[in-house]
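Lab meeting tomorrow. Please check the following:
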Amino acid sequence: MTRKHFLQSMDKLVELPRGTLQGPEPLNELEQWNSMSMIGFIAMADSLNRVSLSVTEIMNCSTVADLLRVAGIQS
């Protein structure tokens, strides 16, 4: 998965217009970033990158860029 595709998928996951997220956004400022979107993110990372993530890894992320990193998406 490319960075662009990941960010577009994240836009959809947190119900933002396509092209909104760029990476540096703090997760705690995203209104729709919650336990349900975390589960969606884990499923997305697993299905698209074959990366298995734990809730702890996600909880340690503070920005969208951190999610990119734990999902193994190159900048």
In short: Residues 3-16+26-70 form one domain. Helices lie at 3-13, 35-49, 55-59, 64-70. The mean pLDDT is 90. The chain has four helices and no strands.
